[in-house]
Amino acid sequence: MKIRHKLLILLMLSSISLFSQSIDDLDTRNGFNQFKLGDSYIKWQSDLKPTGFKFHMPNTELYFYTGNCCSSLFGFKIEGIFMTFQNNKLVEISIDLDRERERQDTQYMVDCQNRLKSVLNSLVALYGTPQSIKEPKDLVRENPTYILGWIGEKVILKVEHSFIFKGGSGCKTRITVSNREWLFNTYKPEF
Asked: 146, 158, 161, 186: which is closest to 94 by C-alpha?
């Protein structure tokens, strides 16, 4: 089963990579829509609500975006946008697509897989084949998650797509654009 999923993803990615742009475009765009990594907190402060999340890095705050910039991405409704600032500079943008919630029908798994394919097709068309692909070891375990990454010189793009089995059925997709240096410094081993 796992090999079949890998082959499906690789086939899908290779078929559209012929028409894709390069990973350099990730660094050139440097963000999402009107949000650009390096933007000042002051630029967005009127549209931000603190989440209360505490980072282990000093002067780093996570906010929920309350403005009306974007309602959809790749044809899917946006549920929420989170912005992380360190020293009043935007270092990470996370976009949560609207979840498929509490579905009891058998079609939800197909719909969730189609969502993943659609998002991947869009990102591969923009940035080429991801440099990192992590598949769940077992699709029947609790909330299996696919993680795919595009790694530029200055920017990292990550897609996390989870199938939710606990507490109902559905799926969750998060797309995150991060400043590469900040990300590596934030999550580097401390020993």
From this structure: 158
The single-letter DSSP state of residue 83 is E
Helix, strand, or coil (residue 189): coil
Indicate the residue type of 136: P
Q: What is the predicted pLDDT for the residue at 5?
A: 53
Pick from 96, 86, 87, 98: which is nearest to 65 by CA? 96
Rounded Cα–Cα distance for residues 16 and 131 (Å) = 15
Answer whether 108's CB lies under 8 Å from 168's CB: no
Residue 153's contacts (CB-CB under 8 Å, 6 or more residues apart) are: 27, 180
Written as six digits, the tokens of 142 are 């609790």
pTM: 0.81
Q: What is the pLDDT of residue 15?
A: 44
Place of tokens 């897989």: 113
Centre a 10 Å sphere on the Cβ of residue 167 and count the other Cβ atoms it contains.
9
Per-domain boundaries in the chain: 2-186
Residues paired with 92 in a beta bridge = 84, 178
Residue 3 predicted with pLDDT over 80: no
- Is the distance from CB of 175 to CB of 159 less than 8 angstroms? yes
